């Protein structure tokens, strides 16, 4: 597959690793005879490590067949996370290394996840855009004469810490953006 044929979301092999393309920047130099260059922002599968790489438009890249199955988080098996396929209840076990930093967003019965599969083996996970989580510890709202919104730290049920608006209290359920790790609103 040529570099100019690749779209966001494609999975390619590069330097002996497998990467999913998340962003593509196209640059064409001024003047005659300039080759168009493509800069890909890619994340390794599994692991999710970021890699920036540049290619000429006619560089060859091998596309890898990556299947995505919608699944729901079921339970922990030691350090491994077990997800069940939403259609046929096939269990997919992903170890802590494959999950990485995403572990902080995985709550009981989390649905809307996609398990990434290469050659019938689960290798990665794609979380939903937002996850509903419970605030377990945050300082009380300060009563005062200020009209400004001051964020405060909050510890969530998985141990993850985020900044939330002052009006959020212990026990409330909040939406957390899984891409940025930021507060995205009240859940209920």
From TrEMBL:
The keyword Cell membrane does not apply. Keywords: Elongation factor, Protein biosynthesis. It comes from the Bacteria. InterPro entries: Elong-fact-P_C, NA-bd_OB-fold, Rib_uL2_dom2, Transl_elong_fac_P/YeiP, Transl_elong_KOW-like, Transl_elong_p-like_YeiP, Transl_elong_P/YeiP_cen, Transl_elong_P/YeiP_CS. Residues 68-123 form the Translation elongation factor P/YeiP central domain. The lineage of its organism: Bacteria, Pseudomonadati, Pseudomonadota, Gammaproteobacteria, Lysobacterales. Belongs to the elongation factor P family. GO terms for cellular component: cytosol. This is Elongation factor P-like protein. SUPFAM superfamilies: Nucleic acid-binding proteins, Translation proteins SH3-like domain. One of its GO terms (biological process) is peptide biosynthetic process. CDD domains: S1_EF-P_repeat_2. Residues 131-186 form the Elongation factor P C-terminal domain.
């Amino acid at each position: 597959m040529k570099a100019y044929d690749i779209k966001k979301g494609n999975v390619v092999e590069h330097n002996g690793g497998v990467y999913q393309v998340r962003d593509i920047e196209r640059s064409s130099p001024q003047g005659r005879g300039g080759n168009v260059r493509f800069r890909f922002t890619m994340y390794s599968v599994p692991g999710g490590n970021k890699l920036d790489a540049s290619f000429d438009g006619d560089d060859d890249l091998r596309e890898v067949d990556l299947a995505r199955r919608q699944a729901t988080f079921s339970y922990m098996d030691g350090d491994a996370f077990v997800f069940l396929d939403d259609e046929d209840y096939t269990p997919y076990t992903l170890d802590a290394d494959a999950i990485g930093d995403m572990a902080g967003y995985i709550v009981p019965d989390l649905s809307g996840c996609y398990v990434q599969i290469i050659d019938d083996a689960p290798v990665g996970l794609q979380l939903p855009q937002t996850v509903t989580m419970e605030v377990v510890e945050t300082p009380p709202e300060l009563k005062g004469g200020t009209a400004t919104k001051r964020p405060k730290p909050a510890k969530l049920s998985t141990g993850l810490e985020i900044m939330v608006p002052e009006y959020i209290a212990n026990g409330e359920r909040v939406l957390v953006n899984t891409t940025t790790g930021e507060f995205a609103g009240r859940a209920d």
